[in-house]
Amino acid sequence: MSEKIDRVVLAYSGGLDTSVILKWLQQTYQCEVVTFTADLGQGEELEPARRKAELMGVKPEHIFIDDLREEFVKDYVFPMMRANAHYEGLYLLGTSIARPLIAKRQIEIAKQVGADAVSHGATGKGNDQVRFEIGYYALQPDIKVIAPWREWDLTSRTKLIEFAEQHQIPIPRDKRGEAPFSTDANMLHTSSEGKVLEDPWEETPDFVYSRTVNPEDAPDAPEYITVDFEKGDGVAINGVGMSPATLLETLNDYGRKHGIGRLDLVENRFVGMKSRGMYETPGGTIYAMAHRGIEQITLDRGAAHLKDELMPKYAELIYNGFWFAPEREMLQAAIDYSQEKVTGTVRLKLYKGSVNVVGRKSPYSLYSEKVVTFEDDAGAYDQRDAAGFIKLNALRLRLLGRRDR
User: Does the predicted model carry a pTM greater than 0.90?
Assistant: First the structure.
């Protein structure tokens, strides 16, 4: 500890790690701790976090439990989905996209209560420390950041439990044993890492999955649904209008039922190491496929292909924690401009772990049956034009061929 801290805002879940951090901050920095717990649709009861914080001496007015579900989907998940963002071609960025919102709200609370520091429970090996702290500094450049995992000597789960017992911090019975894996959850996904998942050769045990049925046990009959879009964002399922969060929750229910959205991935962390994780993104997987489906008939080829070129950079920025960076905002502006006519309806078939687009329609469709037909097109397309088109595109290759023959 190198400087005096009077008040710190802690990103607090009420679990073992952040409860130990709360007490450690109080002892190490002799400071007042303000707790912030974000409801991002993780499906857990959050009131126990309030009671535990009060038990550990946090003033009731300094315990913040905020329902951020609608803001999360509307202002973070949907903009990301407009870009069709997948990190390393597969990962739908469920953890990554939640961090900037948590960081933003932490800084808002810090300003509200006059705190001079913020703290988080991310370890020194992972990506989240980077995401949180880049977000903090972007929003409040001079904020002090306390990252206990980079300071303390509590380097194992056993030491955390010993510290908790020494300071009478309540530990649920099921948290005392060695955890078989760690999880992070929000409305978009659940991620699981560590322990039983660390050997990339071993198949993920079925007990790790919590949000989807085994595709082998999913219904034997396919189910069809429709998703309506307006300017690139989902607005209705089966013709029923819904808020962003309700729409994603509804798609999660469909995905759970049909075993959709499981991903076993070895990814490259920003800090340099490879890690193996299991992700469940049931509703997000369905939504991403639906969004691609409506773009197929509403986006011009040039715009669609340019978006696909920009997407890996956009996804990497989110994964690495640069949501508030100007380059992400510049890319977002281009992506959002492309979505002006991305309006219409997509029909999807859900069946035993798979989701497929089987129909799409739009008042702004660029698809022309008259032009594409194999039957008589009544002059809509002059096939003789193709000869000149081909010869012009082949000209440089013909010149190369003549030279090198």
Answer: yes
